[in-house]
Amino acid sequence: KMTQQMRDLQLAQARKPPGPSSPNAAKRLYRNLSGKFRVNYTSFDEGSLVGRGEKEKLRKSYLFQSNAALFEAVELQDLDRVQDLLKQYSPEELDLNTPNSEGLLPLDIAIMTNNAPIARALLQAGAKESPHFVSLESRSLHLSTLVREAEQRVNELMAQVVNEAPNADCSEKEKQLKAWEWRFRLYKRMKAGFEHARVPDAPTSVHLSVASSSSVHVTFSEPLSVNSAVVTKYKVEWSCSPTFSPPLGEAVIDKLKNLHFTIQGLVSGTAYYVRVSAYNMKGWGPPQASVPPFAIPSSDAGLSPREYDGRAPRRKGQAEALDHLLGQVKTVHQHCICHEPCKNQPQSRKHSVSKSLKHLFHPSSKFLKTLKRGLYLTAIFYKDDNILVTHEDQIPVVEIDDTYSCLLMQDFLWFTKVSCMWDEILWLRQCVTVSQSSCSCILQTRFKMLLAISQMQGLLGIQDLGQVFFEPVKDKQGNILIVTLKEVKTNQTFESVRWVPICKLQSSRKSVSSPDEPTALDMLLMSIQDKLSYHQRSSHALSPGLYLGYLKLCSAVDQIRVLVPEQLPNILCHVKIRSNPNISREEWEWLQKMVNVEEPVPAEPEADTSQNSLFQELQVAIKELMTLVNIPLQEAKDFRLYSQEVLDFGDQVSFLLLLPPSDDVCTAPGQNNPYTPRSGFLTLPLQIFELGEER
Prior knowledge:
One of its GO terms (biological process) is establishment of mitotic spindle orientation. By secondary structure, the chain is an alpha+beta fold.
């Protein structure tokens, strides 16, 4: 006799569209999904749908198919398909935490078949275990029921196939039999996986540090054992007693992207003991005490090492002082007698932003089509894979100076600083106009730069031209292009805008350009993707934490350049030390002793202390950083830690600096550098790097 659960299963299946009848059918379902449903449903021709109700019905059909495909991919243990579906759909669209007709979730199937990679992928996406399994007994009973009923169904179908004469109906029964035999084997494997599993081992690398005057920060790693079931959550406990009797509090962490937790609301000056335990489908494992075993939030926690030494934070009041200074300069300039003629000049080039970009398509626009010998400014506005062009399908270009033969680096660096004041261009023009009586060539060039900026702003109707690319584009004909880049957000709207796919613009330009001697515009279009990637990556931010940075400079005749990673060019080469960005007073004092010690290998700090944790973390970070920048580990003994301060980059990001030997910090022109970093690095002018870090 079928149980009530199996009858509910049959009713549910009767209401649902027919599912796959075998593993091969499941694969066919996934292939169909790949071809038909793995696109956003809004890309279909909605004009062919009748009413909103039909659109919603079609949408739900797509999402149901994606949910079914996820279950089948997990059951078939196909990691690539699972990852593809998780990227294509949101957890809500996949119904990631809605049980199927058997009362199972995708995560349940993954952990009970002991498929750790799929389980981790699901956990990263926010998957949960089924709420039906409130105890070990309920999970065991549910699995036994699934196995028993699947076996019963197999026996029933086998008897029908044996007793019936061959016909179309019999062929359908054989397909059902194969599907149920496969499902029977799946349930038996899940049941065996559950029975042989054991509780997880204790977490590893449990480190405790002070985060503020009322909080401590704990980080930990997964258990080392690979024989137990997949860990699905962790528990952090804290107490004022080393025996945790009584406990003061606990927190369950089921979001496993970052294994750390900050305990807040603590009393300053009180010692807090912390331990962490892991959980899997068999229950909670043993706890692991932190190292050090306790931490004491103190009134000086959260202070910078400069403040430990009685010095004010480096950036304290700097922004306010600079704003005040700029205001004073403007006030003096406005009352200057020689400035009066400039104030009365008609602002013929000043355009309202409300005019938007319509000048792009005005026949009398003064954008250039071709380049002669000279210095030019171009503005790249992009959205996704499209780029903004003029009515003649050209990138906006204006002339700066047609007599300028070579771009001096100091003029270019001055231009990059001007990019921080796009809204003040008119005022800057007036300032430079006042000073033109000196007839300085430098001032003449910079005044022309300001005129070109005003012209570009006026023609586009946009004040903010974006970020200056870190080097100009030069060709053999003597043309020099200064490039600005700005991403247009999808929620911004513009009137009369012509967007052209980048590939189309490149193709049309290629057909008219000379492959032997490409112009600066040709070179710009050929490298446009690299420049857009640089612009996007330069705005990325680091996650909170303490980092070890590597400072390496190289000098040329007119500039100093700094080594940075291509993936994050606004930050020095770096590796992460830990998630807590703060350094305690005890850790800082130990660092000072370690840096100033005369012995080549300083003594290790005592075990079970925060200093020892930092020592071990630094060792790992230095080895990782040396490998990253392609420097042999034996050379690390000659490197130094910058001991004057910890660099604070804001947003809970701080840096310790690793310096080469004093003679190698900056490589001079012609000096051989025996250790060349691997691919993935570039050198930026120091001033460009400073501006990028400020942004």
